[in-house]
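Our consortium's second objective concerns turning raw sequence data into structural hypotheses that experimental partners can test. To show how far this objective has progressed, the report includes one record in full. It was chosen at random from the queue rather than selected for favorable results. The single chain below, 153 residues long, was entered without modification.
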Amino acid sequence: MARTLRVLVRLMGWSCVAIGLFHLALGNAAIPGAAHAGATIDSWGRFMGASFAGYGLAWLWAARQRPVPATAVRLLAGVFLLGGLGRLLSLALNGPPQWFQLVLAVLELGLPPLFLLLADADERAFGAAARPGPGTAGAGARKGAGRAGAARP
């Protein structure tokens, strides 16, 4: 479970950075159905692209921590869920958007519960590895025991 969390957090971070930079670079052309939406939407889209890239960097920061902090995962997943709820609100008020936006809504509503389920997996695994077992009061009780030689992914 801990490895799954670390992989998913890293994947989420890089995906958000890539998507954000894509929107920053392409503006309206990156938004399905909005290629000719005008300067105001282009400006907003590029700003939101930069913000989404920053959001991705926050995921990557969390991925680099040992253990991956459960609080950060919960907060970041909550923000993602809020985005999905925003899409649902738009759907209710304005009707269905371009089909790809519906796919994104499914991801934004489906991934946060998975992240919330896994949020403390790395902290639990890290804590279990650092606790000395019976008869290991010597070397096993040192800070970081159980991690010697472990490669950082």
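The partners drew two points from this record. Confidence is low (pLDDT under 50) at residues 138-150. The two ends are 15 Å apart (CA to CA). Both points have been shared with the crystallography group to help prioritize constructs.
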